[in-house]
Amino acid sequence: MKTAWWIGGLATLSAIVGVGYHLTRSAPGTGPTRPVAVAKTGPTAVATSTNTASPASAPPFHVASLNAGTVTVPDGRPTVVYFMSAGCGSCISGEQQLARLAAQTAPTVQWVSLDVDPGYDTAKAVLSMAHYTGAHWPQAFGTNAIINAYHVTQLDMVAVIAKNGQLLYDGALPSNAQLHRLITQAQA
């Protein structure tokens, strides 16, 4: 009888530890659930800071899209870049938020999602997530140069780039109202 209690207690403790580990590793805003491994190809971008008094130019990049040829940023259009991972739970809701907003914005706005974990995520997983969330825009894998240039330190980050190439915002996914204001500013 004591053996059954001891085994049951150990099983319960293991389940609690497992659930706690899972919850802390997948909580929104905690960043990647494992070290981010990114491809080391692509252009070398110059890092800029959005904390300066004068506006910064968005670091340029070209990436091969998983679903739409080559993506160039900036390209003379207002652009929203979303830094995410297909294995990130909060990124699904973030991409759904962006898809709803994209449906309300002018077709001249360029939307791009960059998966920052190509060492773990597959092209199929990224495209499946885009389909599920309604993100009907280019999906690609980010490079170290892009991630560093845009100061990506966690998942669910966004960069908003004006049509003149000015980096207007580089940070955590903002509210729809703030993002709408930034897009309006980017179109001016």
Layout of helices and strands:
Elements: H1 2-25, E1 56-57, E2 61-64, E3 70-73, E4 79-84, H2 89-102, E5 110-115, H3 123-133, E6 139-141, H4 144-149, E7 157-161, E8 166-172, H5 176-187
Parallel strand pairs: 4-5, 5-6
Antiparallel strand pairs: 1-8, 2-3, 4-7, 7-8
Q: What number of structural domains do the residues give?
A: 2
CATH class of the largest domain: Alpha Beta
Query: What is the assembly state of the chains in this entry?
Result: single chain
Run of helices and strands:
HEEEEHEHEHEEH
Transmembrane segments: 6-24
Protein name: Thioredoxin domain-containing protein
Domain Thioredoxin: 52-188
InterPro entries: Thioredoxin-like_sf (IPR036249), Thioredoxin_domain (IPR013766)
Describe this structure in words.
The chain is an alpha/beta fold and 188 residues long. It has 2 domains: 1-29; 56-187, Glutaredoxin (3-Layer(aba) Sandwich). The protein has 5 helices and 8 strands; from the N terminus they run αββββαβαβαββα. It has helices at residues 2-25, 89-102, 123-133, 144-149, 176-187; strands at 56-57, 61-64, 70-73, 79-84, 110-115, 139-141, 157-161, 166-172. The strands form 2 sheets. The chain has a 6-stranded mixed sheet with strand order 1-8-7-4-5-6, with helices on one face. The protein is globular, with a radius of gyration of 19 Å.
